[in-house]
Amino acid sequence: MKDLMPSPALARQIRVAGLLYLIIIVAGLGAELGLRGPLIDLTDAEGTGAAILAAPVQFRLAIAADLIMALCDAGLAILLYLIFRSVAPGLALSAMVFRLIQTILIAANLMAMQAAWLLISGDTGVVDAEALALVFLDLHGHGYDLGLFFFGVNSLIMGMLVWRSRVFARAFGIGLAAAGLVYLTGSALRFFAPDLSAAFAPAYGVTILAETAFCLRLLLHRATT
Question: Which parts of the chain span the membrane according to its record (predicted)?
Fold first, then answer.
């Protein structure tokens, strides 16, 4: 195991990683909570269809925001590997792979959103198209959580890398590892104990706090730290 060697080039990489992370956080939360969430009620197919038809730009912006998030996530996965490979190359490579799996799943899962849009907005001839669209929207939610399961593994590994780096405070590593446990638990509940998902939802505050703190730490990094 080696420490990260402070240098201007490394500092630039770390700050770019922080910028990508910030875009991911804003785009991801914006898509889920600000754009998509207010339109979708999985207990009301007709109401959801009407809400989406009344705000088509908002619904499509949610898809666009997730695409931007996925693009930045792919870039961040590679950049974090380059930053941390000197600390533990095997762990850094593993973290990159698990993050890229998450990125692929979330990006591909947007087809479920598009399918829902086609059913709601077009004359498809499908009987009870709004109900079928709601199934696709629910499938998108499950697919998103499937991606977050792999991201949970990534977060645990990143927690170890940050802990070992001796450049970042170990508290950031603990925070990322805790976020990983939340993602793993939340995703598992979504598939295997969905009745408990709502009660567990407040735990995701840990992920927002931990990832935002690490993002800001990356953005504020200097070569002399």
Answer: 20-39, 59-84, 96-120, 146-164, 171-193, 199-220
* Helix pair angle (56-84, 45-54), 10° resolution: 90
2 within a domain of the structure (yes/no): no
Euclidean distance between CA atoms 133 and 17, whole angstroms: 37
- DSSP 8-state secondary structure symbol assigned to residue 86: T
Q: Give the DSSP letter of residue 223.
A: T
Cα gap 180→67, rounded to integer Å? 22
Answer whether residue 3 is part of any domain: no
pLDDT tens for the chain, 225 residues long, are 455 656 788 889 999 999 999 999 999 999 999 999 999 999 999 999 999 999 999 999 999 999 999 999 999 999 999 999 999 999 999 999 999 999 999 999 999 999 999 999 876 666 688 899 999 999 999 999 999 999 999 999 999 999 999 889 999 999 999 999 999 999 999 999 999 999 999 999 999 999 999 999 999 987 554
Cβ-proximal residues to 171 (8 Å cutoff; 6+ apart), any chain: none
Q: What is the pTM of this model?
A: 0.91
Q: Which residue in this structure is represented by tokens 């770019």?
A: 16
Element (H, E) at 89: helix 89-108
| Number of structural domains in the chain | 1
Tell me, yes or no, whether 148 lies in a domain.
yes
CA distances for 102 relative to 97, 148, 221, 222, angstroms: 9, 6, 26, 30
Burial class (CB in 10 A: 0-12, 13-18, 19+), 48: buried
